[in-house]
Write a structure and sequence with these properties.
The protein is of the alpha/beta class. The chain has 3 domains: about 1-145 and about 275-340, 3-Layer(bba) Sandwich (FAD/NAD(P)-binding domain), CATH 3.50.50; about 160-270, FAD/NAD(P)-binding domain, CATH 3.50.50; about 350-455, Enolase-like, domain 1 (2-Layer Sandwich), CATH 3.30.390. The chain contains 13 helices and 25 strands. The strands form 6 sheets. It has an 8-stranded mixed sheet. A 5-stranded parallel sheet has the order 9-16-10-11-12. α1 (about 15-25) packs parallel to α8 (about 320-330), α3 runs antiparallel to α4 (about 80-105) and α3 (about 45-65) packs parallel to α6. The mean pLDDT is about 95.
Length: about 475
């Protein structure tokens, strides 16, 4: 059976299903091909289940500290099987929502594995073994990513797990060494330590969350250490071996020499790699940028009519894939759209949370322009003190001449929500004065952003300025 359509999309994750919905809104006939479940990694094995577990862990921690608020809790515990069951319920509900959106927009969904016959034809191997052919003038590749597993001795030992398995743990391990201090690693460290695991993080680079401003990474490491999470940065994993007690020994090289770490389990959280296996892109001559599919800002590959979005082009976040999907199909259907990467929020749901948008201080200085930096601590923000989460700060990087907001970096309570205002400021090319003249409700957490902006000009109100503080 052959299906003729206007746009075919391979992959029903965040980028793929959003691309399909936008194309349908523009009047196109859309075929969406998904080999597993709609929602992709984000909904089923990433963003959503991990945040559900993090939320449960945070609530349990809040109960542990109830006495600080004058509250008495007679007993507190958790049933991890029930925690996992609620996580699964959340995933099913949100996946069902995606299914409803796809169906409601008249998108033809095909369950199967798609591969290229040529630039405008796909062969789809259906779940029942049959095949179908899909023909379309425009094809969007949105096949996502898989866990990265480097060739390090011991990674295949029992007790070693990755992020996918980490979301399905039947019980909380007594201790875990987490290999990787990026977003995945620090989020799992927060979740598992909140449930009582003894956590050690090993990060090869010089700071945690290494894609963030180094000042943020250092602050997060300090907060983790205070919470009992052991952090080893600048440390390379050498091998993992079975310990006589049934646990695992992790051989590492630290800045001061060789060391061995011991834990019940080891988690590998060193990132994800693009998934293009079996897609057949090599026979089309699609250009690659290392492991990623190379695209321009219109999400076009070098082959006319073929677009790529999301993790296969290095998108990193679901919200990046959302926008890339819209941009791809708008261009495919004759509109004019372009990705603007200046204001993509980076968010990490550890505790304290980390978020940023725009240029780091180092990146801004590297442009050669003169900059100014403002900071404001959450300890001086009334709402942060009220809710008992006053660790962290907001940092604003601005152009010295015109005051344009170039970058904003946050660590503290609910900053994954607060970063939205900063992203708007960056994309609108707002100035420090624009932020300063925007009245922020009191007492609220976003006041810290305004105060940090004011601090760029040494005008912060709710902190005493000292000459040597800068």
């Amino acid at each position: 059976m052959a299906i003729d359509t206007d746009i075919a999309i391979i992959g029903g994750g965040p980028g793929g299903y959003v691309a399909g919905i936008r194309a349908a809104q523009l009047g196109a006939r859309v075929v969406l091909i998904e080999k597993d479940q709609l929602g992709g990694t984000c909904t089923n094995r990433g963003c959503i289940p991990s945040k559900a577990l993090l939320d449960a862990s945070a609530r349990y921690q809040a109960i542990q500290h109830a006495s600080e608020f004058g509250l008495t809790v007679s007993s507190a515990g958790f049933d991890f099987a029930q925690v996992q069951a609620r996580k699964d319920k959340v995933v099913r509900q949100l996946r069902s929502g995606v299914e409803t959106l796809v169906k409601g927009n008249g998108i033809t969904l095909i369950h199967g594995v798609g591969s290229f016959i040529d630039a405008h034809r796909l062969q789809v191997r259906l779940d029942d073994g049959r095949t179908e052919e899909v023909t379309a003038p425009n094809i969007v590749i949105a096949t996502g990513s898989v866990e990265s597993r480097p060739p390090i001795p011991g990674l295949d030992l029992p007790g070693v797990f990755g992020s996918d398995q980490g979301l399905e743990l039947p019980e909380v391990p007594k201790s875990v060494v987490i290999i990787g201090g990026g977003a995945i690693g620090v989020e799992f460290a927060t979740m598992l330590s909140g449930f009582g695991s003894e956590i050690t993080i090993v990060e090869m680079l010089s700071s945690l969350v290494p894609t963030e401003d180094p000042e943020i990474g250092r602050a997060l490491a300090q907060q983790f250490e205070r919470r009992g999470i052991h952090v080893h940065t600048g440390t390379r994993l050498e091998r993992i071996t079975q310990s006589p007690d049934g646990g695992l020994d992790v051989a590492v090289t630290t800045p001061t020499g060789a060391a061995t770490l011991h834990a019940e389990r080891v988690m590998v959280a060193i990132g994800r790699v693009p998934y293009t296996q079996g897609l057949g892109i090599d026979r089309l001559g699609i250009e690659m940028n290392r492991h990623f599919i190379k695209v321009n800002t219109r999400m076009q590959t070098n082959v006319p009519g073929i677009y790529a979005i999301g993790d296969v082009v290095g998108g990193r976040y679901a919200h990046t894939a959302f926008m890339q999907g819209e941009v791809a199909v708008e261009n495919a259907l004759g509109h004019d759209a372009e990705m603007d990467y200046r204001a993509i929020p980076n968010v990490t749901f550890c505790s304290p949370q980390v978020a940023s948008v725009g240029l780091t201080e180092e990146q801004a200085r590297a442009t050669g322009q003169e900059i100014k930096v403002g900071r404001f601590p959450f300890i001086a923000t009334a709402k942060a003190v009220i809710v008992g989460e006053s660790a962290g700060f907001v940092k604003v990087v601005a152009d010295a001449k015109y005051g344009q907001v170039l970058g904003v970096h946050m660590i503290g309570p609910e900053v994954t929500d607060l970063i939205a205002e900063a992203a708007l400021a960056v994309i609108m090319e707002a100035t420090i004065e624009d932020v300063a003249h925007t009245i922020h409700a009191h007492p609220t957490l976003p006041e810290a952003f305004k105060e940090a902006a004011l601090d760029v000009e040494q005008r912060a109100i709710h902190v005493v300025r000292r000459a040597a503080r800068r």
